[in-house]
Task: inverse folding
């Protein structure tokens, strides 16, 4: 069933900082969705943030701020509660590890994991009542040419986590020195077969790398929680051949230098989609190569998601890299400015919904975040700040009709929500009491 859900902005926050909801974001503030995920129970969690530029003012009514919010929804789409986390500067000054989260994942035991790059995770109770644990890597403090003893690693885990049907944790992990940069960037894909809890973190077994030889590694860059063939990752030790070496001939312009690894997702318990893309340029990158690789749990590249044209279907135009997957039915999905695409488990393109046509033009205003455990797509409208849950048929060739019906239902439900919530410039303020993490 198609369901439309608002991203609520706590009224207490609007009042405290006197946020002008009618102002354009060019005035120095913004409201942005980060990620949306779902639990097997059907409940949905959304991560988003509100920001105002720090002008140096001490008065809360005029000064800068950054808050992240997590909202929990019932299976029927009703808002069950929202929690606030203020993002502050400095080590361990923010409730969420890493100084703020970018991804969400529901772990097998129901715990909510908020991931932050590089390699930080915050565990939150399913009812959002409290934080259970913080695995903070402090890797954002790792810089180039640091004198000995000036950097102390924290307790890292992963930048992003996705769960397979059997409960395995598919992890994206960052390393220092990727493409010779003096910071920490996502470079590894790994699998953890044990539970991540407040008391312990499982060992991640690396299965793939992007840059095979990150530069300037020292002993502090060795991490015992992620291993390859029984030894900690670091130095020259990581999976080879790297993803970029497997497709070396496909990037004639930059030879995959400065390429980026996006969040991997499971297509089955032992089959994963690993998206990566070539260097981006200020002048435009449409036509640059990108790959949605299919890897098994040994790191062997068994194929890819086929059928996308480097120019006509390029994700570079809107920087839309996300791939979502339904591992129970073996479906994969990608949405960018040019269309919505769907593949089967073999990587064969089964549906292409052309967003340049009037029928599906509305899709260009949405961002794809994930699939629910029962196979629905979760999309977020970029300007109206609404979540859209779209059912997916077993037969992907009928997906165009289903999505068309969902877009029509979105318009009707949006009208009903406007009557209930009375949003200002598509900002949905909520008067209910808000908890603080």
Result:
């Amino acid at each position: 069933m198609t369901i439309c859900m608002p991203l609520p902005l706590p009224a207490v926050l609007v009042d405290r900082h006197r946020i002008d909801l009618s102002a354009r974001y060019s005035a120095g503030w913004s409201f942005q969705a980060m990620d949306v995920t779902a639990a097997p129970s059907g409940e949905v969690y959304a991560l988003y943030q509100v920001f105002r530029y720090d002008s140096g003012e001490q008065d809360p009514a005029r000064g800068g701020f950054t808050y992240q919010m997590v909202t929990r929804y019932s299976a029927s789409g009703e808002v069950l509660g929202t929690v606030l986390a203020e993002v502050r500067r400095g080590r361990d000054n923010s409730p969420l590890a890493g100084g703020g989260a970018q991804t969400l994942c529901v772990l097998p035991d129901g715990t909510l994991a908020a991931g932050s790059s590089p390699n930080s995770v915050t565990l939150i109770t399913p009812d959002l009542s409290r934080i259970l644990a913080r695995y903070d890597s402090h890797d954002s403090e790792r810089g180039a040419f640091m004198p000995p003893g000036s950097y102390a690693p924290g307790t890292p885990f992963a930048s992003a986590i996705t769960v397979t049907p059997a409960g395995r944790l598919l992890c994206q992990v960052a390393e220092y020195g990727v493409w010779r940069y003096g910071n920490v960037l996502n470079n590894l894909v790994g699998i953890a077969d044990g539970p991540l809890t407040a008391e312990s973190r499982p060992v991640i077994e690396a299965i793939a790398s992007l840059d095979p030889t990150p530069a300037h590694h020292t002993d502090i860059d060795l991490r015992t929680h992620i291993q390859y063939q029984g030894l900690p990752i670091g130095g020259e030790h990581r999976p080879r051949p790297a993803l970029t070496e497997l497709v070396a001939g496909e990037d004639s312009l930059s030879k995959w230098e400065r390429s980026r690894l996006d969040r991997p997702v499971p297509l089955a318990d032992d089959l994963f989609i690993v998206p990566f893309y070539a260097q981006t340029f200020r002048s435009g990158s449409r036509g640059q190569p990108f790959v949605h690789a299919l890897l098994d749990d040994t790191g062997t590249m068994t194929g890819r998601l086929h059928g996308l044209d480097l120019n006509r279907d390029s994700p570079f135009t809107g920087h839309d890299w996300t791939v979502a997957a339904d591992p129970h039915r073996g479906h994969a999905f990608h949405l960018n400015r040019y269309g919505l695409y769907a593949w089967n488990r073999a990587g064969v393109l089964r549906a292409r919904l052309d967003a340049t046509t009037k029928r599906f033009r509305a899709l260009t205003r949405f961002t794809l975040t994930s699939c629910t455990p029962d196979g629905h797509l979760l999309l977020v409208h970029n300007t109206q700040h609404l979540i859209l849950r779209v059912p997916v048929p077993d037969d992907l060739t009928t997906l165009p009709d289903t999505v068309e019906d969902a877009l029509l239902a979105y318009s009707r439900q949006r009208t009903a929500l406007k009557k209930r919530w009375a949003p200002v410039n598509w900002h949905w303020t909520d008067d209910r009491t808000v908890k603080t993490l």
Summary: The CA atoms of residues 73 and 79 lie 5 Å apart. The helical segments are 11-17, 243-246, 399-421. The two ends are 32 Å apart (CA to CA).
